[in-house]
Design a protein that fits this description.
The structure is a single chain. The chain is elongated and about 70 Å long. It starts with 5 loop residues before the first strand and ends with a strand. Helix 11 packs parallel to helix 12. It is built from twelve helices and ten strands. About 40% of the residues lie in helices and about 20% in strands. The chain has two domains: about 140 residues, HUPs (Rossmann fold), CATH 3.40.50; about 140 residues, Rossmann fold (3-Layer(aba) Sandwich), CATH 3.40.50.620. Helix 7 links the parallel strand 6 and strand 7. It has about 300 residues and is α/β, with parallel strands linked by helices.
Length: about 300
Amino acid sequence: MISFKKILVPVDFSEPSKKAVTYGLSLAEQFDAKLIIAHIVPESTSLMYAFPTEFTEVEKEQHAKAKQVINNLVPADRAVGLNLQTIVKIGNVEAELLGIVKDEAIDLVVLGTHGRRRLGRWFIGSVTEHMLRKVPVPVLTVSHLEEEGHDIGFVSLKRILYTNDLSESSITGFQHAIEIARAGGATLTVMHAIDDEDRLLWGPAWMAHLDRAKLVEQIRNRLDELVEQAKPSEIQIVTLVVEGKPFKKILEVAENYGTDLIVLNLQSKSVLERALLGSTAERVVRLASVPVLSVPIAGGS
């Protein structure tokens, strides 16, 4: 059984990171998990040699200010009874966060993403991208559309969409979707998008056109087998087969179904092979207007 016992939310005190705290807090309460909120004060290595004393003092001041702010992020009424830890460090942001993931045995990382309008939609921030590529645990990326300030509150995940790539190891991502749905009493839609360009799985595109109805039936049967294999209890599950470019259909279905969370697989046999996240996962993470849980799984096509 999948269990989130320790949840990490890195914050830079921006509105997106505050939204990430809301999701991290809500999930921590649902799973009775420990919530760790961390802020990394970037080390000033570029000018440190020229002005060592001055920059040491600046970093100390930033560290002290961050400690004060981070301890007040979670509303007092929500902090009561919550297993909460705050961490403030000085150093390389990515390296320190990866260290926390390892040292604290983190099960889930929740990240706020920046830049969701117009051209900005294609940039999710270097820290987020690097974490997705390197972190060995699921990463929940929380999009940020609204311009106004975000008050840390509570979110309810009632409609979850799991995008199944039909790989042998896809059961891992499915189990994560099931547990989140179970914890929040959500309905779960399991979908697969038929892409004619996916010749590795289904053969030449012309064969798919030869008997499209049979192909759709085969895929629907495989989705039903996946559901039967997992045998989830107390969860309403709907299977869905659509046709088109996967990332476009995922975003379309998410919008049409009023989805609160998208769950997808990050296929990789090793960390190095995830240097390029894959066109479908990367585009969904970049363009989705709802949170996306990316689950790293081994193997698969």
